[in-house]
Specification:
InterPro entries: DIOX_N (IPR026992), IPNS-like_FE2OG_OXY (IPR044861), IPNS-like_sf (IPR027443), Oxoglu/Fe-dep_dioxygenase_dom (IPR005123), Plant_2OG-oxidoreductases (IPR050295)
GO molecular function, one term: oxidoreductase activity
CATH superfamily: B-lactam Antibiotic, Isopenicillin N Synthase, Chain
Pfam families: 2OG-FeII_Oxy, DIOX_N
Radius of gyration: 19 Å
Structural class: alpha+beta
Bound molecules: 2-oxoglutaric acid, fe (ii) ion
Protein name: Fe2OG dioxygenase domain-containing protein
Keywords: Iron, Metal-binding, Oxidoreductase, Vitamin C
Strand content: 15-25%
Number of domains: 1
Length: 356
């Protein structure tokens, strides 16, 4: 069992953004410039920020019917929600943030000791760079598998700061509990037993991505992370401080998510969209940069084992008399094919679309 650690298609090597900004804060190379249409064409929906649903995890845990209905609506209408009363202590959240910030402040050569190897996407570097002429994201990233623990490749976990591993472990263990609770509630609102979704995963695989967004003098011209939906079942995100950066697609525009302090931001991923035959939508999101402040975000992806076949749940097709919108596909094939594609909104979910 211990030898079968998954690896993922690697990304092309591109410049370190943090270093670029350190050397010349005014320089924004052409490779990072977005077209104006992409940045400005959509309606400004920032006034909708306050309407992003808020879910109380302690109520969900008690099986509160009203809260389950709220969750159902949040997954249908927004695909994103904030979770409060999750029970993750603020010192655990802060521990992860401090240790990560300390890692990113290390000299480049120290960080490069765990740079992504040529055959994997885990480690320090950039993700989803698949062609030399693609527009690049204004960010650097650190990616690692955390659970099940025998999936860990500790060679690419930061050795410095010393407390990094413990902080990551403490945070991830807590998030696993939150995810199990959320997946239990999702099972219920999808008309199944509470433990069905977890069972379907065979093993709940948990991967972590720490995003580092340096400031950019012209934030209106670059993106921290390109629009995409996550290939996960669910993603739980937390962010550093009060710098807003995350924006979600809603009603044809972009809505900034203003994080409630210490709340966790959850989004529905492609797997849930596929399983629910489109009833719940994995929503496109992106991150913008800030003119003067660095932002860090911490995304935890919960996914099934590679061998698990995902496809619309039969009871969700049968009861509604609707056609399956997606075909059955092994999760491992889905995620690996998507990683060979440039982030382009939700284009990669086509991999699982049923033929008409
Ligand atoms: O930084 C953010 O808020 C978004 C990060 C994200 O979408 C991701 O890592 O998949
Ligand atoms: Fe994402």
């Amino acid at each position: 069992m211990g030898d079968n650690k998954p690896t993922y298609p690697p990304s092309l090597q591109v410049p370190n953004v943090q270093e670029m900004v350190l050397k010349d804060p005014l320089k924004v190379p052409e490779r990072y410039l977005r077209n104006e249409k992409e940045m400005h064409a959509r309606p400004d929906l920032s006034h909708l920020s306050s309407q992003v649903p808020v879910i109380d995890l302690s109520l969900l845990s008690n099986g509160d019917k009203e809260e389950l209905l709220k969750l159902d609506l949040a997954c249908k209408e927004w695909g994103f929600f904030q979770v409060v009363n999750h029970g993750v202590e603020s010192k655990v959240l802060q521990g992860l943030k401090d240790a990560s910030a300390e890692f990113f402040e290390l000299p480049l050569e120290e960080k490069n000791k765990i740079s992504m190897p040529p055959n994997d996407i885990q480690g320090y570097g950039h993700a989803y760079v698949v062609s030399e002429d693609q527009i690049l994201d204004w960010s650097d990233t650190l990616i690692m598998l955390v659970y099940p623990s025998w999936f860990r490749n500790l060679d690419i976990w930061p050795a410095k700061p010393q407390r990094f591993k413990d902080s990551m472990e403490a945070y991830s263990t807590e998030l696993k509990r939150v995810a199990m609770e959320l997946l239990g509630s999702l099972s219920l609102i999808m008309g199944m037993e509470k433990d069905s979704l977890i069972g379907l995963h065979k093993e709940l695989v948990q991967a972590m991505r720490v995003n580092y967004y340096p400031p950019c003098q012209t934030p209106e011209k670059v993106l921290g992370i390109s629009p995409h939906s996550d290939t996960s079942t669910i993603t739980i995100l937390t962010q550093d401080g009060d710098v807003t950066g995350l924006q979600i697609r809603h009603q044809g525009g972009w809505v900034p998510v203003k994080a409630i302090p210490n709340a966790l931001i959850v989004n529905v991923g492609d797997v849930t969209e596929i399983l629910s035959n489109g009833m719940y939508k994995s929503v496109e999101h992106r991150a913008v940069t800030n003119e003067s402040k660095t932002r860090l975000s911490y995304a935890t992806f919960f996914v099934p084992l590679d061998e698990v076949e995902i496809g619309p749940l039969s009871h969700l097709i049968d009861t509604k008399g609707s056609l399956p919108l997606y075909k059955k596909i092994k999760y491992g094939d889905y995620v690996r094919t998507s990683m060979k594609m440039e982030h382009d909104g939700k284009a990669h979910i086509q991999i699982a679309k049923a033929q008409d």
